[in-house]
Design goal:
eight-stranded antiparallel beta sheet; about 25% strand
Amino acid sequence: MSAPLRPLPKLGPAEILRIVASMTVACLVGAAVLGAVFMATDRYRAAAVLRGERTAIRDMLALDSTATLVEVKQFLAPERRQVVYRAAPLGAEDAPGREVAFTLDGRLAGERDVAGGAPLAEGLVPLGRMFVAKRAGIPAGFVVEGESRGFKKRIRMFVALRPDFSVADMRVIEHEEDPGLGAEVATPWFRGQFTGRTADEVAKLDVTKDPMPEDWRAALRAMAKRSPGGPARHAALLPRERAKPIYAVTGATISSRAVTDGVRATVDHFRRRWALLEPHLGGLR
């Protein structure tokens, strides 16, 4: 026969207090260590993200060292019912910038020069960013941050535009779509379908489940691999494909449509924003 179970000893108030104090101290030490690790690593993570974004922007617009970049942050001021833009040279936090505000119906509400690193007004809600590339003081292209709702969560993207607002490139920079399905919208062959389309063509873009023509697929894959002749094959087929919709990733029509809708909305919004902003940001280099 097995030995009878012994009853657990009763703990007095002093013992209970000692255990609670020990657990509290252990939790506080653990939280302090985790907080210190986060603070030590988050700075490097943020710096790595910033370097990656700068590299992507220059690569998407094929910029050389002579081009400069201006970052424009967009905010909503709900109480004032205004949209506020803060522009400054990218990577130069201490450089002076420019702040411009518009009412929701597009009327100028105010503008001012701001010192480098000047704090923003309280209550502003971030709405995204755009980057203006300049060469010899003339716009050489734009990269606009956009997002849309995917199959699971939001999909964030960068859309690169030439000065005439045609698409130079598109890259998905954040998503949580399923690997092998929705995640394919981040592949070079899928995003290559947008490259070269004019703003008017993008405004009419839709998505189709029809199979992609093999010559177009081959051209896009050649572009993605940067193989010789890839750009020429892409350019030769683009006039034919401009009148056609985006070919969806097989089994991921929702993700494909989300990216297409996001690109269309991003290009449309930027064209209207830039018409308002250009006269006020022309002096930034």
